[in-house]
């Protein structure tokens, strides 16, 4: 069979997770309209007759100020090592293509590069061709492709191009596997997604979620989770007036997990303070964001 690993790279909010979910026809990576939604590299496993592609959905590439930002950026860059090819997604609707090109150059890729101009439905045809010509001139050895992950346009062509770079290889994962992440991780990410959806400003980016207890018992998934924030004042924001916000977050997360798993879920969520956790190595490790993860 043909098999191999493919990194999905790009700056924040360009549609990497939307693409992975579209390819797999199932949500394995959380998606919101907020930048920096993805914090972990997540593998999504695509299987078809005689082919297995292991996609690595990476956090957005950017230069942040905190130790967490540096750790996440490093993890994304490391994902481009040892893969058969790399997809670099670009949001065609934004204007700073020079910054995108600088990011591509900073990766120093040693594998074949496929530059995917995503959100093509949001720009005029002449503008899309202008962007395509710019990246073709800068990257003559790369394949430049047009796509709209949200509209499911161009995805088949991207998959076909990936196939040209896959060698004959082993079956890395069982044919029914969709991701390398377990239900515990999915629960953590779903809670974090609801925080990003419902809580405004920078509080979601200063929060972390941990699963303190996960037990499957007689058809019921029993989950106890903690949301950590950096300041005491942020606790009130997450909890909300008379507990309204935390109730909304936990209830919506529970319903989505039940929909995903087709199983009953009991979810309890607490809010705690871990001061300046994004710059503390011990807390980064505790929350799963150390360089070794």
Written description of the protein model:
The chain is an alpha/beta fold. The chain folds into two domains: 2-163, P-loop containing nucleotide triphosphate hydrolases (Rossmann fold, 3-Layer(aba) Sandwich); 183-286, K homology (KH) domain (GMP Synthetase, Chain A, domain 3). It has helices spanning 16-24, 67-78, 97-107, 125-138, 155-163, 183-198, 232-239, 244-261, 281-286; strands at 2-10, 42-48, 51-57, 85-91, 113-118, 143-146, 208-217, 220-229, 264-273.
Summarize the structure.
The chain is α/β, with parallel strands linked by helices and 293 residues long.
Instruction: Give the termini distance in whole angstroms.
Output: 30 Å
How many domains, in number, for the residues? 2
**Oligomeric grouping of the chains:** single chain
**Rg result:** 20 Å
Low-confidence stretches: none
Q: Which class of secondary structure composition applies to the elements? A: alpha/beta
The CATH class assignment of the largest domain is Alpha Beta
The CATH architecture classification of the largest domain is 3-Layer(aba) Sandwich
Calculate the mean pLDDT score and round it. Answer: 91
Largest sheet: 6 strands, mixed
Strand segment tally = 9
Look at the structure and name the CATH superfamily of the largest domain: P-loop containing nucleotide triphosphate hydrolases
Shape: globular
Strand order of the largest sheet: 2-3-1-4-5-6
Strand composition percent = 15-25%
């Amino acid at each position: 069979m043909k098999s191999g690993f493919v990194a999905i790279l790009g700056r924040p909010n360009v549609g990497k997770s939307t693409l992975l979910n579209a390819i797999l026809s199932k949500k394995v990576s959380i998606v919101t309209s907020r930048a920096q939604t993805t914090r972990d590299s997540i593998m999504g496993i695509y299987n078809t007759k005689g082919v297995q592609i292991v996609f690595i959905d990476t956090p957005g590439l950017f230069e942040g100020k905190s130790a967490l930002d540096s750790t996440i950026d490093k993890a994304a860059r490391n994902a481009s090592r040892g893969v058969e090819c790399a997809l670099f997604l670009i949001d065609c609707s934004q204007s700073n293509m020079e910054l995108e090109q600088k990011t591509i150059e900073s990766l120093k890729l040693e594998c074949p590069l496929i530059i995917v101009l995503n959100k093509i439905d949001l720009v005029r045809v002449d503008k899309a061709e202008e962007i395509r010509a710019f990246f073709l001139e800068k990257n003559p050895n790369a394949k430049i492709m047009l796509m709209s992950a949200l509209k499911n346009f161009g995805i088949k062509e991207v998959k076909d191009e990936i196939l040209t770079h896959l060698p004959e290889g082993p079956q890395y994962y069982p044919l029914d596997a969709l991701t390398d992440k377990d239900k515990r991780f999915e629960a953590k990410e779903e809670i974090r997604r609801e925080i990003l959806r419902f809580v405004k400003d920078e509080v979601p980016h200063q929060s972390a979620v941990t699963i303190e207890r996960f037990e499957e018992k007689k058809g019921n998934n029993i989950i106890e989770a903690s949301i950590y924030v950096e300041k005491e004042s942020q606790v009130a924001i997450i909890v909300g007036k008379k507990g309204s916000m935390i109730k909304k977050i936990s209830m919506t997360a529970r319903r989505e997990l039940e929909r995903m798993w087709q199983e009953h879920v009991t979810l309890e969520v607490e809010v705690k303070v871990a001061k300046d956790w994004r710059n503390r190595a011990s807390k980064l490790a505790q929350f799963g964001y150390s360089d070794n993860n």
